[in-house]
Amino acid sequence: MTVPLLTGTTELDAADLAGRSDVVILGPSLGADVHLWELALPAISAHHAILRWDLPGHGVSVPVTKGFSLAELADSVIALADSRGIDRFDYAGVSVGGAVGLELARLYPDRVKSAAVVCSAAKIGETSAWAERATLVRAKGTSVLLEATPARWFSEAFRLNHPDVVDCLLAMIAAADNESYARVCEALGAFDARPTLSSIQVPMLVISGQLDPGTPPELGAVIAETVPGARQVVITGVSHQAVVEKPALVAQILVDFFAEKH
């Protein structure tokens, strides 16, 4: 196992992030890169300095050939924050990015001021299913996932009304490095934060999509009901990529949450 090297994207120079108290770090979903947050970014950046990160082999982060855990991805996020001179920060992540947020809150409560888990869960899917997907991607590439992904990620109404946005997200999946994608699948298969949720002391918000088939609201509720002081917001009419389907609403929920915890 190893600690992957992550690449961050920010609208500010690294020197301008150092020592700031208003930094929010945003994490991606599997298959997507930092542009997943693009539509929500203006509303969040009006109040915060933003640092987004790419998963290994996604976007501008370098590919990997060795396995890693989500705890080690959390270590990687901390290393990225250190490289930018960021001490304490708020955090929000989608899907696997949200799961990394749980690990950040557990392992680095002195660094994470508050964490928002967006369309995610303490245990996402079954280990065997993730192993099968990793094998499939290694054999046929991430393009094999493109046909089935829209129904998992977006509501039917969004798919019909915004095909250009859906295609943009699918292009991110197609561009991901096959081996790196498979390694993230294996890390997700091994991940189970349920036994440690009650020990988390970082203020936490769970955002769930009403129509999300992969991380439905009832899985988000497990986090909200177990982490002390946590709460859940369910957004109606959206699926797994709530931050894409209703970016302004997600952004406002996050901005309000970060403000009330400071």
How many structural domains can be distinguished in the coordinates?
1
Report how far the terminal alpha carbons are from each other. Answer: 36 Å
Q: How many helices in DSSP terms?
A: 12
The portion of residues forming beta strands comes to 5-15%
The whole-number mean of residue pLDDT values reads 96
The best one-word shape is globular
- Overall helicity: 40-55%
CATH architecture: 3-Layer(aba) Sandwich
Find the CATH superfamily: Alpha/Beta hydrolase fold, catalytic domain
Rg estimate, integer Å = 17 Å
Query: How is the CATH topology named?
Result: Rossmann fold
The CATH class, by name, is Alpha Beta
Count all strands and give the number. 7
Could you say which structural class the secondary elements and strand pairing correspond to? alpha/beta
Order of helices and strands: EHEHEHEHEHHHHHEHEHH
Uncertain runs with pLDDT below 50, 5 residues or more? none
Main sheet: strand order? 1-3-2-4-5-6-7
Largest sheet report: 7 strands, mixed
Keywords: Hydrolase
GO molecular function: hydrolase activity
Domain AB hydrolase-1: 28-252
Protein name: 3-oxoadipate enol-lactonase
Structure description:
Helix 3 packs across helix 4 (96-107) and helix 5 runs antiparallel to helix 9 (178-190). The chain has helices spanning 14-17, 41-45, 70-83, 96-107, 127-140, 149-153, 156-161, 163-175, 178-190, 217-226, 242-245, 247-260; strands at residues 8-10, 23-27, 49-53, 89-94, 112-118, 204-209, 231-235. The protein has one domain (8-260): Rossmann fold (3-Layer(aba) Sandwich), CATH 3.40.50.1820. With 262 residues, the chain is an alpha/beta fold. It has a seven-stranded mixed sheet with strand order 1-3-2-4-5-6-7, sandwiched between helices. Strand 6, helix 10 (217-226) and strand 7 (231-235) form a beta-alpha-beta unit. 44% of the residues lie in helices and 14% in strands.
